[in-house]
Amino acid sequence: HVQLVESGGGSVQAGESLRLSCEASGFTFSFYYIGWVRQVPGKGMECVSSLYSDTSATYYADSVKGRFTISRNNTENTVWLQMNSLKPEDTAVYYCVRKVGGSWYDWGQGTQVTVS
Predict the structure, then answer these.
(1) Tell me: the pLDDT tens digits for 45-79?
(2) For residues 31 and 88, is the Cβ–Cβ distance under 8 A?
(3) CB–CB of 22/5 below 8 Å?
(4) Is 84 within 8 Å of 70 (Cβ atoms)?
(5) 79: how many CB neighbours lie within 10 A of its CB?
(6) What sign for the dihedral angle of Cα 26, 59, 93, 46?
(7) Three-class SS state of 80
(8) Per-residue pLDDT at 43
């Protein structure tokens, strides 16, 4: 079955960096868009970044452009989100997601990022 396992969250000060990792299994990783979606309690979901297999299609939300970098290794079935210059408004639960049929269909368990 499909599994997406995030790691790398934590608590940092504003201006610091974190690197999130997502290890995928249970599907042919290289065939799919993988993204990062975050949720702030009481607010909606925001897709902050996504990346297609051959890196030809990369998306960043305006709120993170220039600060976050997404990358993937199709051999290791892993996606990373490098987050630099973190701001308090980046505080959220970050989910690794797989896109199927135009929707974010499979979700990891989430990892908390807290910026103070």
Answers:
(1) 999 999 988 767 899 999 999 999 999 999 999 99
(2) no
(3) yes
(4) no
(5) 27
(6) negative
(7) strand
(8) 86
